[in-house]
Amino acid sequence: MDLHELYDDAACARVVAEPPKRVDAPVRTPFERDRARVVHAASARRLAAKTQVVDPQSDDFVRNRLTHSLEVAQVARDLSRALGSQPDIAETAALAHDLGHPPFGHNGERALAELSDACGGFEGNAQTLRLLTRLEAKTFDADGRSVGLNLTRATLDACTKYPWQRDAAQVPAGVHADGAPRRLSKFGVYDDDLPVFTWMREPAPPGTRQCLEAQVMDLADDVAYSVHDVEDGVVAGRVDLTRLDPAAVWQTVRDWYLPDAADDVLDEVLAELRAQGSWPTAPYDGSRRSQAALKNLTSDLIGRFCGAAQTATFAASGGPFVRHRADLVVPERTRLEIAVLKGIAAHYVMRTEDRVQLMVRQRDLILELVSVLAHRGPDALQRSFADDWRAAADDAARLRVVIDQVASLTDASAVAWHERLRTAP
């Protein structure tokens, strides 16, 4: 099938119809244009200075949100191509999936969620939709309102990891790194962004099912997150894959990811991962041979997880593997293997005492910054957010503007803004 047979006019539609490009311009598909818009977005550039797991200014090697997104995009593109769907859609969704994350990674997300209950909460994926359809201005509608990057319906749908509102979200389980109960619900749209969300989901079947391309992005994110966080931990000297403490790691796996996972099952999964030919047999020492061995392990693990999903998906359906016509199938064993790797990184990197203390300071900084901006109003906001403040109808809408402003900051700029505003008269 050609592109138009797989992705019809509805999939290619934009909120604001756009005229054809100049006849002398390069010929691109609608989805190639979407990808270019995300690549050139200011919010994409800011990801380079936002925390993935470790402060991006602390080490030249560690991943930041941008490098993580590039790696997710590569995994998503390859898996999408293998399935026969449009790889530009899955790649763009992967490039965009973390745009809404605030300073200090999930720790900053937790702080903003706790501060924003009066205006509908905060969630990084809902903030991504808000950026793509409102805050990252490129196109305006007939009434003069920003429609963001004006991406196609299919691409926006693929960017929506959690296609439901906050009141439909599952009750969170488990604990944070500091032992506090999780209260951050996963959802993909704020109430005041519901019109564009409804437009985006019009061709979808009822319910909260992700489109196929969003499922590919979601798996690619999990794969990259699990494998590369372990790699970063090994290079930083925090993780030694030859000397793990399974009992401690399994408790973290249960606290963070799989509350019902049994020790014997997780033991079996770890044994299968260790049987991978490239699993290290000696501690990492920083030599080029050790670097190459670690890189081969990450490559093998990514291939293992994506290959298992591809095989299971082909076995379950004849396709085509596009939009809402099929689902990505991830074997349960693969999900367990990914969770084990996540648990290793969480236990040895994210639960360390120095990191927990840093997270407390970061949350205090976010709380103080939101408080000061809410008090000082438009004079302390960037021009675009000051305009939003003045147009806001009530206190809840003004709080949302402050949350939008703080979420847009990088780790370093959040610190700088806090210092400047805290000492200003």
Describe this protein's structure.
This protein is mainly α. The protein has a domain at 213-354. 58% of the residues lie in helices and 0% in strands. It has helices spanning 3-6, 9-12, 30-39, 42-46, 65-83, 87-96, 105-115, 124-135, 153-159, 194-201, 212-235, 246-256, 263-274, 288-316, 332-350, 353-376, 383-391, 395-408, 411-423. The longest helix has 29 residues, at 288-316.
Task: Supply database-style keywords.
single chain; mainly alpha; 0% strand; 58% helix; 425 residues
Quick gist of this model?
The protein has 425 residues and is an all-alpha fold. It has 19 helices and no strands. 58% of the residues lie in helices and 0% in strands.
Note the topology.
Elements: H1 3-6, H2 9-12, H3 30-39, H4 42-46, H5 65-83, H6 87-96, H7 105-115, H8 124-135, H9 153-159, H10 194-201, H11 212-235, H12 246-256, H13 263-274, H14 288-316, H15 332-350, H16 353-376, H17 383-391, H18 395-408, H19 411-423
Order of helices and strands: HHHHHHHHHHHHHHHHHHH
Structural class computed from helices and strand pairing: mainly alpha
Count of DSSP H/I helices: 19
First CA to last CA: what distance?
65 Å
Q: Provide the gyration radius in Å.
A: 22 Å
Number of strands: 0
Largest sheet: none
Poorly predicted regions: none
Global morphology = globular
User: Portion of residues in helices?
Assistant: 55-70%
